[in-house]
Amino acid sequence: MHPDIREILFTREQIAARVRALGEQIAALYPASGRGEPPLLAVGILKGCVPFFADLIRALPLPLEIDFLSLSSYGAGTASSGQVRLGQDLSVPVAGRDVLVVEDIVDSGRTLARLKELLAARGPRSVRVAALLDKPSRRAVPFVPDFVGFTVEDAFVVGCGMDYAGRYRNLPYIGVLRRGVYGG
Ligand code: PRP
Hints:
Blueprint: E1 5-10, H1 12-29, E2 40-46, H2 50-58, E3 64-74, E4 83-86, E5 98-106, H3 110-120, E6 126-134, E7 147-151, E8 157-158, E9 174-177, H4 179-182
Parallel strand pairs: 2-3, 2-5, 5-6, 6-7
Antiparallel strand pairs: 1-9, 3-4, 8-9
Helix pairs in contact: 1-2
1-O-pyrophosphono-5-O-phosphono-alpha-D-ribofuranose (PRP) binds next to strand 5 and helix 3.
């Protein structure tokens, strides 16, 4: 275990098993697209989505395309108090398409609530959200992800895409950061 980690919440094996189950659950909701219809568009939100996104799309036994966007939080100090703005945009239109947004974590809910508004304005057929982790006790705005890997209490989690100051995203497990590391 990394010395900055206090406790492992979910091991690599637990995450892999959960992602397999999510893949089956999600695939069952999307009937095969008809001839000439565009397939499901899996949209990853950079950067935290990367490990979960890579695992999840390989667990989805259906035709799909992938794309990415980035969002930035601005505001008084913390992400949770800030406004969410679009950074890098998608490279394809989503009008008429089924869109599956893939995220590492839902915390205050601001990021995903705003993103769903942004995407809905473009006229997709559907927008659903898959999040590896959900922290419902931290919500500042109402938001319920359609698919959740794990629900957690309010702890400073890192790994599997989630960072502190840009680090720890590559840990293959999800762990709680030691308090001394982030001054908590
Ligand atoms: C994280 C995470 C979500 C967002 C969730 O992104 O990936 O996008 O925060 O928080 P919220 O529910 O309070 O809006 P971050 O801004 O840290 O960027 P990153 O993906 O590059 O780590």
